[in-house]
Amino acid sequence: xxxxxxxxxxxxxxxxxxxxxxxxxxxxxxxxxxxxxxxxxxxxxxxxxxxxxxxxxxxxxxxxxxxxxxxxxxxxxxxxxxxxxxxxxxxxxxxxxxxxxxxxxxxxxxxxxxxxxxxxxxxxxxxxxxxxxxxxxxxxxxxxxxxxxxxxxxxxxxxxxxxxxxxxxxxxxxxxxxxxxxxxxxxxxxxxxxxxxxxxxxxxxxxxxxxxxxxxxxxxxxxxxxxxxxxxxxxxxxxxxxxxxxxxxxxxxxxxxxxxxxxxxxxxxxxxxxxxxxxxxxxxxxxxxxxxxxxxxxxxxxxxxxxxxxxxxxxxxxxxxxxxxxxxxxxxxxxxxxxxxxxxxxxxxxxxxxxxxx
Amino acid sequence: xxxxxxxxxxxxxxxxxxxxxxxxxxxxxxxxxxxxxxxxxxxxxxxxxxxxxxxxxxxxxxxxxxxxxxxxxxxxxxxxxxxxxxxxxxxxxxxxxxxxxxxxxxxxxxxxxxxxxxxxxxxxxxxxxxxxxxxxxxxxxxxxxxxxxxxxxxxxxxxxxxxxxxxxxxxxxxxxxxxxxxxxxxxxxxxxxxxxxxxxxxxxxxxxxxxxxxxxxxxxxxxxxxxxxxxxxxxxxxxxxxxxxxxxxxxxxxxxxxxxxxxxxxxxxxxxxxxxxxxxxxxxxxxxxxxxxxxxxxxxxxxxxxxxxxxxxxxxxxxxxxxxxxxxxxxxxxxxxxxxxxxxxxxxxxxxxxxxxxxxxxxxxxxxxxxxxxxxxxxxxxxxxxxxxxxxxxxxxxxxxxxxxxxxxxxxxxxxxxxxxxxxxxxxxxxxxxx
Amino acid sequence: xxxxxxxxxxxxxxxxxxxxxxxxxxxxxxxxxxxxxxxxxxxxxxxxxxxxxxxxxxxxxxxxxxxxxxxxxxxxxxxxxxxxxxxxxxxxxxxxxxxxxxxxxxxxxxxxxxxxxxxxxxxxxxxxxxxxxxxxxxxxxxxxxxxxxxxxxxxxxxxxxxxxxxxxxxxxxxxxxxxxxxxxxxxxxxxxxxxxxxxxxxxxxxxxxxxxxxxxxxxxxxxxxxxxxxxxxxxxxxxxxxxxxxxxxxxxxxxxxxxxxxxxxxxxxxxxxxxxxxxxxxxxxxxxxxxxxxxxxxxxxxx
Lengths: 358, 435, 303
Prior knowledge:
By secondary structure, chain A is of the alpha/beta class. Chain A has 16 helices and twelve strands. Chain A starts with a helix and ends with a helix.
């Protein structure tokens, strides 16, 4: 009796996955995935009847590359950083996307003109601009808040543990800026051996105090748990910890590194047509503007930027002023150089890991 | 039931004996024994086949990647599944010109191959393969393939114009090495070695050396955890073995409950206890042992790995110790005492030597399990509490250098199989006990 | 362990120190497992005892994290709790789905491991078995080989054969991991097995099948059941293989916990942990009772 029950459950489970149109979307987890579920997935299902399965990864670029190369693709759409999108496309691991088929702006401007510069590629369509910056716990710092990225590396003035992302990308740039390299020259310096040595030397100075994180949801948690007093964090995640949970966190915009996140379709995706449909729907003006009401990531379309309103649960918060791309926030900021990282990602990560393990 | 048993008493008798149906006894006996062997074997066969299929074959296939990487010789088109040979001209040139420096014909061959890469969109993969052994090569290939159409003779100049790095002898050495899909270079990489421009094995840059240290750290931490397990297990195993059964069975729950509790639950518990704002730190701050700003970092570092793994592996040490200690006859120790030995001498000279088999069994088992540990270090180990398994996982899921992951896995597996063999010789797998 | 009457003062001191040390070690073993239980009833989203909890104030305690296990992932968690609410829980709640997957995978992998493992143990325990030692070593090896190596091997193998992202794939992998435990426990029961019993049965006219079910099975059953429980726990606790070869809709409880621990340790994880501790207490009790029964049956000890 029991056996039949379990068996039936198993079989229904199997049968269920096989039927009904669906699309599997892989993103970065936490508050970011939530914003996408609310702004893209739910309305998409409501309009098309296609179920959206949401899957999370630390960085979706690596699992989809592994899946494609092993010949076992289960993801239809992935949300990846620009350098990864370009690299995967180069390696022939992504389906090409016809950008002329994307939804036009409400005023009729074709998508190819409405998207901000550099956000449409052969295999990728951008959806947001986000940034990596420093977040800190105001309570722990005792009133003196950091004002420049150099303060992050100043353990005397601001004692306490630091959180950083366990990867070379953004970590090395921040180390250089913390060492006094102006934002505009970061990649120039980093392209030289001396520059890389300099970045690691700066990291050496705080290495003992660093707790390394891998998933984007971790740093706000590390701050909340009191594990760190300051951490490298993605702006949307820390904003949501402040706005939704009322945490006493502050943001340091000096030395921020902003980047695009793009939708890509891995080669051999099981539901390729639904994937294209999903991208077309999600990157339309209204959806992009709507997602910005859940998390302060800037929409990649000009027509959406104007429509950005207030925070979904608190009309008093104007999301526009929290975007990475306001003039004030861009004072000392650098755009992630995708060409640099396409070339040096493997090499610098190898060195970074050796450095970390020693 | 067992003919063999019936006949076993008379095997020593002469050939002239026959069975009731007239067959020579020796032949009938042999047939009966063969039948019994076959019957036993057929009982095991389904499982053996299953394990070979779902365990041995997959691991073997994975390890094959440590010596086989066709990234430079073959393009695999994902959509159609077609496999196209690539770098054909250059590989031919390598075959024809052993140990020669690249000349114009070599560059011409390269130019022709780049054109093919461009059409196949395979430059990224080829570059990645070379990049494993010479950092910064990936972009050389993608850039050159992008410009492949513009290349004109003399090719040497044309290609060097694109990037001077094409003239690097080390690059040519790597390409020559990669021109055969079979290579041992990933094993070299796994022990922090590489080949120089002349093909000699040399150590990699000091700032890039990591694996030898990591293997040593894994061994050291495993050893430390084994010793800690022994130190903690010995007293309680002794207590359990000397208490009357009804008490020891009750206390045994303290050992068996952790053994039966999910690994993730135990790891979670340690996070709860060890965090900066966790139970232990809070308790110490509340009782005034610690100042609030001096909370001890017990997690996200080696300490976290050591504490949690010792706790998780402790039952594997207690159980074999207990099973060896239980049958030890107390009268030996009493005899020693009555002959004038102090309690310490009696323990050291009489009791302890009798527990050595249990110590050996427990220590080997704990050590074997610790060396391959993954979950706990990944969750509480931070940067310096990572073990070799975590790096295998890193290369499997993050850097996607699968050949290197396989080479590291092969070395780890080799070590573990030696220990396993040792365990079988010393303890016997049959004597493995679970509670 | 009683102290002899003639013990010296020094021996007395040592004896009590020794007992204290043992008590501390037992505390080290058990405290981390029990600590999660009160904390899972924390009313606040913290991992530590709040003042209210320490004062045993009822306000400091709540079952909200257990409730979250049901509501997390639901389509309409705030709807009135009628039958359709429960249907929603059953269909959509993430932890409930994880539990379903864990049970399905655990059940079938246990079945597979137990049947194949028991048969093999019967063969292995016969003195005539050829290559006994080598085969035994191969069959036990899934317990010894680091799980990360097994998982990576399966990832490539399953990708190639189309078993990736299927229940069958995970069930087969978990069965492989559980087999060593079945073999060890069943062969252990067979060590004390008196083969004259089967001969007696045969001489009384029983055919091999009857002998198996009437004579062998009842005697080795306790070993088989403990082996099965071990195999079930192995599958129920396994996360690495699931990380490598399972699809998004095949998340098990440990997989879900892995996510939770890395990203957001909320007391919800502790409430899952508490439930799992209770499950392991139940399993442990069953195994202990079986062991005693087995020993009594075989007349090994009074238990």
